[in-house]
Design goal:
mainly alpha, 117 residues, 5% strand
């Protein structure tokens, strides 16, 4: 349970970092980042999961790059729901998906390493 809370906070921080790196990816504070991380996680676990199953052949043909398109769409959808979180178009969402994927790998590396000790 504590591990999930730590990951939630770390993903919110990753969103804040992303808002500093990617132009057009706007977060106005820590609490909107927390809510956005929760909404993006929920969307990826539900709608995103279904889209990834349906588009699996396309993902194979593009060597997984289409998964970033799906993640960008989930980010755009979340930005329409969460106050204080706004993405100005598909390209900022796509580049945000790339940055979040990289930061997510780092987060998972640190959180799984510390939990296996």
């Amino acid at each position: 349970m504590i591990g999930m809370l730590i990951q939630w906070v770390l993903y919110a921080i990753a969103l804040l970092i992303c808002s500093r790196i990617v132009p057009g990816f706007v977060l106005v504070g820590f609490w909107p980042a927390m809510i956005a991380a929760l909404v993006i996680g929920f969307l990826n676990a539900t709608v995103g999961f279904l889209l990834k199953i349906v588009t699996f052949p396309l993902s194979i043909l593009t060597l997984g790059i289409f998964l970033l398109v799906i993640n960008a769409l989930m980010i755009m959808l979340a930005s329409g729901v969460v106050r204080g979180f706004h993405v100005r178009g598909f390209l900022p969402a796509f580049f945000g998906a790339i940055v979040l994927a990289i930061l997510g790998m780092v987060i998972r590396a640190f959180t799984t390493q510390s939990s296996s000790s």
